[in-house]
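User: Could you check the structure of this?
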Amino acid sequence: MATTPEKLLLRLEWKVVRRLDGRLQGAHRTAHRGSGIDFTGLRPYGDGDDARHIDWNVTARLDEPHLRVFTEDRELTVWLVLDRSASMLAGPPGRGKHDVLAELALVLARLFGRGGNRVGALLFDTGMLRVVPPGTSRRHALRIGAELARTAATARGGATTDLAEMLDAAGRLARRRALVVVLSDFIGDGDWERSLQRLARRHEVVALRIVDTADDVLPEAGLIVVEDAETGEQLVVDSADPLLRVRFREAVDARDARLAAGMRRAGVPVHRVDTDRDLAEALVEVVARTRDRSP
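Assistant: Sure, the predicted C-alpha cells are below.
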C-alpha cells in the first residue's frame, strides 16, 4: 500500500526536518526580499533620498520635505517546480526518482513554511500542469503531497519532457520576484537554456537534479532490454559490448557537460541528489554549497 502524504510527512519531519530546521532559514541568502511593505513613519528628506517617496501632504503642512518610510517584508515566496514526467519513474520501488522528488518537495515546503515563507508548487508533465497556490501551513505542505500522489497515480509515458515549456510555465506563474526551486532529472527536449535564462533574470533559481544509478550506468548483464525513460520505446542490446559501453559513457558525459554549461551560463546553481543518498545529508550539502556561493 502506498504511503499517504500524512504518514510520509510525519516520517520526514522526524528523520529530516528536525535535523535541518534552522539550517535552511537564513542559510539561503538572497537579494530578493518579499513583496510586502509596511509603513513605519516619516522623516525629513535628505540628499540622495528617492523623491518618489516624498509625502507631499506632510511636506506642504510642515513646509519641509518629508519621506514616507517603509519596512520591507523579508519573507519569500517560494515556488517548487516539480517534474512529473515519465523519466522520473526510474529507480527501484519505493526509492525511485519520483519518490525522492516527493520527499524533497515535502521537506522543502515544510522547512520554508515553518519560517513564514509562502510555498507554492507547479507539477508539470508534458500536456499536463497542476498548480498549488502559495501557502504556509503544515496542511498546505500536505496539499502539495496529495497532488504529488495524484500525479504519481496517473503517470504516463509516450512523450518526452519539454523542459523549456516547464520553465516557461514557472515564469508565467511566478509574477513577482521569488525563489524558484526546480526539481527534475533534466532529461528531456526543448531549448531549455533560453527559458532558464529568462526565468533567472526575474527570480532566484536553484536546480536540484535528481539522479538514479540507471541514468548513468549501463549494467553488464549480456542481452538486456533498454527502454527510453520518456517515450517507452524499447530496444534489445548487448550490454557487454565494449563499444556500446564506451558510447553510452560518452553520451552520459556529454549530457552532463551540456547541463552544467547551460546552468553556468544562466547563473543557476545545480545540485545533484542521488536516489540512494540520505536526504538530510544531501540537503545539508546543498545548504553548505549555497553558503559558499553567497557574497
